[in-house]
Each structure stands twice: as structure tokens, then as C-alpha cells.
Amino acid sequence: MLKKMKTVVAFGNPLLDTTLLVKDDFLLNKYNLKEDDQKEITKNEMQNICNDIISYEKNQSAGGCAQNSLRVLQWLLKKSATLLFLDRQEKTVMPLL
Predict the structure, then answer these.
(1) Edge to edge, what strands does the sheet with 92-95 contain?
(2) Could you tell me how far CA 92 lies from the centroid of its own chain?
(3) pLDDT tens across 54-92, in order?
């Protein structure tokens, strides 16, 4: 028999994933990017990309290994549970709904 889980706490660094739908290869070509790839870029390149995507519709979602693990756990439980994510940089406690 499983005991009732009261609280799960995860410690990790906060990340914010931003996705956008592009209708052509303009950004990929301009910044020498490939589909489904990763690339380390400079701070200047990041600023330029951010300026170029201002007019694009964006979706943002919380990310990071610890936070994503809590989301999967909650999906697996298929019921409400108290899951907390502790952000060391901001010193905040954020409930994951």
C-alpha cells in the first residue's frame, strides 16, 4: 500500500522556453541556424535575434529539468498534489499548478 504523498519539492535553475512559428527561412538563413538543432550564440547575436522576432507571435513556457520533472510527475499522478519549485537565484518558492 502506498502512503499518501504530501509534498514534492524540486530545486533547480529557472528557464523560460520561447517558441514561435516562422513562415519562411529568413531567420534560419540570417543567423545560420538549422531546423531541430542547437547553437551557442553570443550576447550580441541573441540581442539581434530578439529584435528580429519582436513582431512574431510567441509562446512561452516554464522549462528546466527540475520543473519539467515535476510536471511529468503530476501528469503521472493524475490527481492534484502539492509540487513546489525552488528557484535559488530569485529566492522564491513557486507552486507548480
Answers:
(1) 7-12, 82-87, 92-95
(2) 17
(3) 888 888 777 777 778 887 888 887 776 677 766 655 544
Give, in degrees to the nearest 5, the angle at Cα 41 between 40 and 46.
135
Q: Are 8 and 70 contacting, i.e. CB atoms less than 8 angstroms apart?
A: yes
Number of H helices and E strands in the chain, helices first, is: 3, 5
**CA 84/CA 97 separation, integer angstroms:** 9
Per-domain residue ranges of the chain: 7-32+41-95
Q: For residues 44 and 21, give the distance between their C-alpha atoms in angstroms, rounded to a whole number.
A: 23
Global pTM exceeds 0.70: no
